[in-house]
Amino acid sequence: MLDAAMPIEIPPHLLSAARVVASRRDMLHRLPRNCAFVEVGVGIGVFTHEVMTICAPRSFVAIDDFGLDRVELLWGRPSAEVFEGWGHQGFYEHRFEREIGTGLVTVIRSGSAAGIAALPDDSVDVIYVDADHTYDAVRADLQACLPKVKSSGRIIVNDYVLTPADASGLRFGVIDATNEFMIAHDFAMEYFVLQQDMFCDVVITRSANINRAGFNQTDEHAAAVRRGLERRIAELERSSSWRITAPLRRASRLLRRR
């Protein structure tokens, strides 16, 4: 194991395909639809709602210890007021009552690593890790993810940043634990996701999923653009103007050869 006190540098080949995207919403538009999605650390369900809206997953697992109602203040408000008297888990389950009722959403009340470990192996397309940000906790969460994520799957790590937004002086272990995991298990960075105050996310996937051009072959956004271009080319080739100008194109090619 690498020393968590030392900065861990990612080898260039694990970064060569990485692309910067504008926000988490932009990132979600680039993820596969109809996927098996797991969110670890769901808070009050804001990100869950965005995943449901944009990715339309076929299954969604929410893992959390649901302990935020034990905190006196959340975002400057009494936690009892934030959760409208429901408590943390009750508030989340009430918000997604319909999705839970249909079986789309499954809620696991657990610590993060233990909750991840309870998932079936090779069952997850995308897992979003946003739990305890200490080095040991992030390291344990990522190790637990490894057998659960499909060979083509992605792990998204939240708050890839050194320090929290308060004056505590604490050091997050997210960067060190993530970099160490990437090196140890040959995961490449696919996206560096910009976010407010630079509390960015990173999307990582097994390096074998990145093709020689540096793009993930399951990138939904790139695939949609490619399909659109292919449709436009096909329409152009069927058009009368394309047929009429065919002799001119042939003459142009002959002139270029001379």
TrEMBL record:
<keyword id="KW-0808">Transferase</keyword>
<protein>
    <submittedName>
        <fullName>Class I SAM-dependent methyltransferase</fullName>
    </submittedName>
</protein>
<keyword id="KW-0489">Methyltransferase</keyword>
<dbReference type="GO" id="GO:0032259">
    <property type="term" value="P:methylation"/>
</dbReference>
<dbReference type="Pfam" id="PF13578">
    <property type="entry name" value="Methyltransf_24"/>
</dbReference>
<dbReference type="InterPro" id="IPR029063">
    <property type="entry name" value="SAM-dependent_MTases_sf"/>
</dbReference>
<dbReference type="GO" id="GO:0008168">
    <property type="term" value="F:methyltransferase activity"/>
</dbReference>
